[in-house]
Amino acid sequence: MNTRRRTTLPLHAIAVVVGAFMIVPVLYALLGGFKDNSELSGNPFGLPETWVTANYTDVLASGSFWGQLWNSTFIAVATTVLTVALSALAAFVFARFAFRGRELWFTLFTAGLMFPFAVAILPIFVLLRTLGLLDNPLGVILTQAAFGLPLTIIILRGFFRSIPGEIEEAATIDGCTPFGFFWRILLPMARPAVATVSVLAVVGSWNNFMLPLVVFSEEASWTLPLGIQQFQGQYASDTARILAYLILAMVPALIFYAVAERHLVGGLTAGATKG
Amino acid sequence: MTTLTRAPEAVASPPPAPDPPRRGRWVTIALFLLPAVVLFLLLVVTPLLVAAYSSLFKWNGFGGLPTDFIGLDNFTRLFTSDIFAEDLWHLLVLIALTLLVQLPFALAIAMLLNQRIRGRAVYRLVFFAPYVLSEVITGVLFSLILSPDAGMANELLSVFGWESEWLADPDTVLPSLFLVMTWKYFGFHMMIYLAGRQNIPNELVEAAQIDGATGWKTFRYITLPLLGPTIRISVFLSVIYSIQLFDLVWILTGGGPSHSSETLAVTMMEWGFKRTQVGYASAISVAMFVLSLVFALVYQRYVMRRDLEGATTSMGGRR
Question: Which ranges does the record mark as transmembrane (chain A) (predicted)?
Answer without folding.
Answer: 12-31, 74-97, 104-126, 138-160, 181-206, 242-260
